[in-house]
Amino acid sequence: TKVISPNTSNSKPNVVILGTGWGAISFLKHIDASKYNVTVVSPRSFFLFTPLLPSCPVGTVDEKSIIEPVVSFALKKKNGNVSYYEAEATSINPERNTVTIKSVNNVSNITGESKEVSSGLKKDDTAELKYDYLVSAVGAEPNTFGIPGVKEHGLFLKEIQHSLAIRKRFIANVEKANLLPKGDPERKRLLTIVVVGGGPTGVETAGELQDYVDQDLKRFMPSIAEEVQIHLVEAMPVILNMFEKKLSSYAASVLEKTTIKLQLRTAVGKVEADHLIAKTKHADGSVTEQNIPYGTLIWATGNKARPIVTDLFKKIPEQNESRRGLAVNSNLLVKGSKNIFAIGDNAVAGFAPTAQVAHQEAEYLAKVFEKLAAKNLHKELSTSSKPEVVLENNGVNPFKYIHLGALAYLGAERAIANITYGKRSFYTGGGLFTFYVWRVLYVSMILSARSRFKVISDWIKLAFFKRDCFKEL
Ligand code: FAD
Ligand code: NAD
Hints:
Elements: E1 2-4, E2 14-18, H1 22-30, E3 37-42, E4 46-48, E5 67-69, H2 70-74, E6 82-93, E7 98-103, E8 108-110, E9 116-118, E10 126-130, E11 133-136, E12 140-142, H3 150-153, H4 160-178, H5 185-190, E13 192-196, H6 200-220, H7 222-227, E14 229-233, H8 245-257, E15 261-263, E16 266-271, E17 275-281, E18 287-293, E19 296-299, E20 303-305, H9 307-315, E21 326-327, E22 340-342, E23 347-348, H10 355-374, H11 378-383, H12 387-393, E24 405-411, E25 414-421, E26 424-431, H13 432-445, H14 449-464
Parallel strand pairs: 1-10, 2-3, 2-11, 3-6, 11-22, 13-14, 13-19, 14-15, 21-23
Antiparallel strand pairs: 4-5, 6-7, 7-10, 8-9, 12-20, 16-17, 17-18, 24-25, 25-26
The chain binds flavin-adenine dinucleotide (FAD) and nicotinamide-adenine-dinucleotide (NAD).
């Protein structure tokens, strides 16, 4: 295999970042590229602002509005070299300090001085990339819990192409249903959407779909719109359990006021191409089973670790027991390693897998890297048997997460929010006003000015026109 040493023309340490999501891009934005040679590896050439992804399938917000090319972030690093490989990391090799990568494109490698250097890799070529430090931020993948049929028939909502797939399926089903007579069970099936998982992804997606049906579809296909039935199926007795009870109950009441059918204590156990089987555990302990025919199935039951991460569990003895992600110490250093850090959803640091956590971890880690460079601790760290002691003795504080709260959109221009600073709560509410708070805060969280501009434009457009809900676009 070809071995690439990112930069041998200077003595700066090579930092390889895996991913272009919340953790990776936030870290890239903050790392001082004059002190490190920075290389980013990710099969996805853009950052995705996930909080607004549920608005995309029905075109409330355009897919292109919430993505931003990696190069936009890389080119801002004027004082150093930043390279990008459009490639998938297939294995981390701690014994050789390399990452095996597989190119997904015939890409060039860009650098900070806007020089274009070819990586020499063609599509499907593999190579090993040497690192002095590795920052793993590959996120997680949708969890199906091994439930039969989910992979084959369910649609997820984690990446931009998932949004396109949901729109295509739903609009195609509307078209097919329109050819069938009213009362035909096949028409009813085609117009049934089942969203599995009452976490924020499921709730927000169901709310957005219902908005489209109530606000747009109703105007030009009123009888079809009336027959669309969205089910939101949740195994636990509550939805949105990360919120306090008052807010999650309010959320349930908003959903029930629309025609969304909320099915609590109901777990989906089997999925076939046109129906699924779900079991409801009632308060008295009895269990009933139902068969729900569906046209569109959206699976939003949370995440699990990616193969590249589970593969690393086997290679580092201290990670042998890891399941959900890489166990990290209070400096976000992967336990059992001296030079692999993990942030975001692929790290288990005791916090929820959220963008907020990934972002704060990335900012913290960039500060750790600043200290390492300022005090030139590279050699000491790599030879010490207790890396955390080296960091502590040199004034590197442990990572401290400050919870700034949670927000969720419910549909019908209603949202819930709990805004905090650590343990202090500043605002708790639900309703129309909170919907505007939600909009303002989400726009402020977007990582690029272009994307922020586009999202605001999409919302202004929505005040005057219907959603851009085109099947093939
Ligand atoms: P990601 O952002 O998922 O990034 C992972 C990156 O790694 C991607 O670029 C991916 O292409 C890349 N990658 C994958 N495999 C490889 C590989 N083998 N090699 C190299 N690169 C790889 N959190 C909030 O705090 N607030 C919200 O409102 C919110 N809304 C959300 C809405 C939705 C629909 C979803 C799905 C999630 C939401 N989250 C929200 C959660 C948040 O998106 C995640 O916690 C966050 O993205 C985690 O960041 P990350 O960097 O760990 O992973
Ligand atoms: P989640 O893990 O938060 O929720 C998944 C839900 O699916 C759970 O409530 C679970 O009980 C349910 N479930 C699991 N298996 C089931 C089955 N077989 N049948 C029925 N229900 C089943 O997942 P998510 O909503 O994708 O969120 C993932 C992460 O991203 C979380 O940390 C979340 O906080 C974050 N996120 C945040 C926001 C926001 O802040 N607005 C939005 C989306 C995601």
